[in-house]
Amino acid sequence: MRFGVISDTHGLLRAEALAALQGSQHILHAGDVGNVAILDRLRAIAPLTAIRGNVDVVGACAQLPDTQLVQLAGHSIYMLHDRQTLDLDPVAAGIAVVVSGHSHHPAIQWHKGVLYFNPGSAGPRRFSMPVSLGFLTITETAIEPRVVELLPS
Question: How many domains does the chain have?
Fold first, then answer.
């Protein structure tokens, strides 16, 4: 199964992101949504799990949870906006993937069998960082992360 992962839209949902996410079985938004209409547009593609980021302080986005634990394809995925605020041990909790955003830097890291995945920022370009999102292809036995650049850096 293929799951879309997006973060740090900051009120901008690019046509390239919408096109890339087509065919996803579920979409995860790791915070800094910036505009609740973005969530509605993502829900039109696939079921959505979204969390609040540090810019989501007013309106409907402020009502999103800080963290979320979701089960996808038999694996536990823990979502939080800023990985630096992780206050649990994913290994002890049986979590397979930690999804975060905040830094705007795409990252794929494995540590003690846990995948730490940041799709980067899909919203307004910051500095010279790429505009990107990610995908998790998950089966019962494997998790394959992938970052996709929407616009070249």
Answer: 1
